[in-house]
Amino acid sequence: MAFRSPYYCCYFSFSFFFFLSFVRSSLQEIVPSSIHSVVDDTNDFQAYPSYFSLLQDGKFKGLIKQRPETFSLERFGEVLEKIPGSGMTVNVDDFGAKGDGSSDDTRAFQKAWKFACSSKGRAFLEVTAEKNYLVKPVEFSGPCKSDLITVQIYGSIEASDDRSDYAKDGRHWLVFNNVQNLIVRGGGTIDGNGKIWWQNSCKINKALPCKDAPTAITFYNCKNLIVKNLKIKDAQQIQMQFEKCVNVQASGLTVTAPETSPNTDGIHVTNTQNIQISNSVIGTGDDCISIVSGSKNVLATDITCGPGHGISVGSLGSKNFQAYVSGITVNRAKLTGTTNGVRIKTWQGGSGSATNITFENIEMNNVANPIIIDQKYCDQSKPCKKQGKAVQVKNVLYKSIRGTSASDAAIKFDCSQSYPCQGIVLQDVDLKLEGGDEVAKAFCNNVKLKNIGDVSPQCN
What we know:
This protein is mostly beta strands. 10% of the residues lie in helices and 45% in strands. The strands form three sheets. The protein has a 19-stranded parallel β-sheet that branches. The chain has an eleven-stranded parallel β-sheet with strand order 7-10-13-16-19-21-23-25-27-29-31. A hairpin with a 2-residue loop joins β1 and β2. It is globular and about 65 Å long. The chain starts with 13 loop residues before the first helix and ends with a strand.
């Protein structure tokens, strides 16, 4: 698309700005004021006490009642996308990008972003279809003057595979930093080109030292964010990360990497509040979705997962750190051939809590460890030291989970002796051993558990 003058569509009238004020007031109405900044009330062990009506002084009061959603991301997304006006449109090609797969287009992307970010009103930044743009590490920073920036990725963005290009920052490739009111979409592809990084991973070659590798795309400290209809593939390490973000919709994503690629988590959520991940297909060499400390109000729906390590809360509490997550819901997911199903994993020696978590309407197909809480998680070459402290796991509901287990342990609760798992509920669970010749088993240590409805297998 041809470059448009800054004066194009400058008909934004009083009615436009009136609508923008309506949008802002609507967002304030939708989202509680407490989450308009990153939540730091990490000592709040019972952030959502109404989530369960089951525990009182460690005893069950009755059936589970799921809390109503405390925020409406669907409505937030509708409001954000209805900001009117065609606005300013720029294309990376207008700033010198070649898109031939070999020329360095990094600077063109930087210039295009700077122009869009400094534009008033609404801005569109386009990445042309049927082109392949080679890009080195780059940061797209705010705050922006634009009321809303929409990045339309129609073509492919491919990472440089020269590791020396990442000398300044070995942990990131594409970063959106401190941007408010941002949409990234378009049906294009983000290609991390990660093969060279996998080959040099200590998990592939034990003789090599363990080093960080870049995350393909990171959204850091962003607010009011929509990411939709994209393909993310072959990241150097983590595919997509949301860190310190508030109000996020991520939908229609296809996230892929080889099953043997190390640490290539699909979608990683850290210190982020009010995020919905939906209608996405994820298959990688690590967790399809990983949710770690500082995350609150996380909803994942209609997720297809596999291959990979399943859907995980954690790991939490490594290096004796505090960790807090709460208000996590995974609803309607299908896992196939993964090494874990729905998992909560914490290190010994940590502290804090993982509370008010629901896994429901989950289909397991030949999944090892379909339901697992592991409070003795140890992802290192040397055995982990036995420690008394632990992250408290509390108020977890497993509801309507069915399918087949690739391991004899269909349910495994390996909880801390000092901080046993509390308020764990299995409701209408039916897991059978793949092949059907033997009966699946449940292994349960240091857990306060209640069964509701038909549950198989059961803890002794």
